[in-house]
Specification:
CATH topology: MetI-like fold
Distance between the termini: 41 Å
Structural class: mainly alpha
CATH superfamily: MetI-like
Order of helices and strands: HHEEHHHHHHHHHH
CATH class: Mainly Alpha
Radius of gyration: 23 Å
Helix content: over 70%
Number of helices: 12
Strand content: under 5%
Shape: globular
Largest sheet: 2 strands, antiparallel
Number of domains: 1
Number of strands: 2
């Protein structure tokens, strides 16, 4: 009976693993199957470097450079906000805070990751956008800056949690040796602990980048929805995920517009996949 249970458990977990791999490859194949046909209507070069996105015009344009630039500007802004706060909170929790303070702060920061993205979007629409209009005297609060702030807050838990784990794995004797040589606590953190955890911190940043570049709901609600190359941080943009979410329901299945949206999905998948691979490589390198 015991042997039967062991065999059953192994079989169930093995089948579950196969199903996971099957679904992953199914998603990848479906994206490429529907996305590749767009290159019958536009070259890869024009698709990636064309600045005009007018898929419903009588003479359609399928250039996604404006969408790519919008995604990267919003993501870069989010990382500029998230890295200092995420890394700073990780250092405080790991190296400075007492046990009771740590037990309070960690759940609060991790709670940010559990809030649905639509709630963040509603916060940006109802509170942040009107506030930016009043402060900066700009015509619209739905722009790169507001989307970057909301995305940055969403990415903070990822960077903070992974960086705190990396800092916690630094051997205690490194800290003690630094203090014994006359360094104070701040010098020990900056010159010993953080450099020793550099790989894990870099991994958290890259994973945060992948999370930000693939976020849909916030950029759909807060970024402004203008398919243009922005000239500043107060310009509205339409990142790639927002374009797919906004237009997919209105397209005819099998049309060039439909395939173009899947083409955007291919670009998003490649960017996210590469960022995850880099993160995995960095984390494994740290463990070796």
């Amino acid at each position: 009976m015991k042997k039967f249970k062991e065999i059953s458990f192994k079989s169930i977990t093995y089948i579950s693993s196969l199903f996971t791999i099957f679904f992953l490859f199914g998603i990848i194949l479906s994206i490429f199957y529907e996305g590749i046909p767009i290159f019958q209507y536009v070259s890869v070069k024009n698709f990636l470097t064309g600045s005009a996105w007018h898929p419903t015009h009588s003479t359609p344009d399928y250039g996604i450079l404006a969408l790519i630039s919008g995604s990267f500007m919003v993501t870069l802004g989010a990382l500029i906000i998230a890295i200092p706060f995420g890394l700073g909170s990780a250092i405080y929790i790991s190296e400075i805070a007492g046990f009771r303070t740590k037990e309070i702060l960690k759940p609060i920061i991790e709670l940010l990751a559990s809030i649905p993205s639509v709630i963040y979007g509603l916060f940006g629409l109802a509170f942040l956008s009107p506030m930016l209009i009043k402060i900066f005297k700009i015509p619209t609060g739905l722009n790169v800056f507001s989307a970057s702030i909301i995305l940055g807050v969403m990415v903070i838990p990822i960077i903070s949690s992974m960086s705190e784990d990396a800092l916690s794995t630094v051997p205690k004797n490194l800290r003690e040796a630094s203090l014994a040589l006359g360094a104070n606590k701040w010098e020990t953190i900056v010159r010993v602990v953080v450099p020793a955890a550099r790989s894990g911190i870099m991994g958290s940043v890259i994973l945060g980048f992948g999370r930000a570049v693939g976020e849909t709901m916030v950029v759909l609600m807060v970024a402004g929805g203008a398919a243009q190359i922005p000239s500043g941080i107060f310009q509205p943009v339409r990142p790639m995920p927002a374009t797919i979410a906004a237009e997919m329901g209105e397209t005819v299945i099998g049309s060039p517009h439909f395939h173009a949206l899947y083409g955007i999905a291919i670009i998003l998948f490649v960017i996210t996949f590469v960022s995850i691979l880099i993160t995995e490589f960095i984390v494994r390198r740290r463990k070796m």
